[in-house]
Amino acid sequence: MASAAIPLLFPSVRIHQHYYGDGSVNQLAPLSAPIHLGADKILIVGVDDPRPTELKPRQLHHPDLATVAGHLLDTVFTDTLNSDLERMKRVNKTVEVLQQHNIATELKPVQSLLINPSQNFNQLASENFLCFPLAIRTLLRMVGISQHSDSSLVSYLLFEQKYTRRLIDLGYQDGIHQLDAIMQFLAVAKE
Hints:
Blueprint: E1 13-15, E2 18-20, H1 32-36, E3 41-45, H2 65-100, E4 111-115, H3 121-127, H4 134-142, H5 153-157, H6 161-177, H7 179-186
Parallel strand pairs: 3-4
Antiparallel strand pairs: 1-2
């Protein structure tokens, strides 16, 4: 529950004598921990939207508070990972150049494989918006969120069984679809 305790949305969770919230909010370098623990490879399950094949239509109105809040959460959860990946690739390139010139370094290259969902979470959340209890839907409408809002906030709040099962199924199917790449990355022999 602590990993879902997004500040301002869900309260922190008490475990023994300490309170915990979502770690990604203050983890500005999410790859730092596994790298410092000695990882040679990092398999990353991301939550970034698949790249659109067509441009979004231009917004005809000023973004509302719900849209901005959703964008801020997207930034916290995906932009920090993307910048950290970019930084790791630059360090890997530096290590490669140093090795080519026989320059000793304590740095080592770290391989990564990033897997992102094949479907947009916001779209899936929109399709399951009516799973929210009526009281929650009413509260959301009061802050400007409806079933077809531009805000990704719904995808962060929707913990209803139908939606979470859909996310689990999507993750499983995406994993199966990329099984060869995952097995090759992990250097595991397929049975």
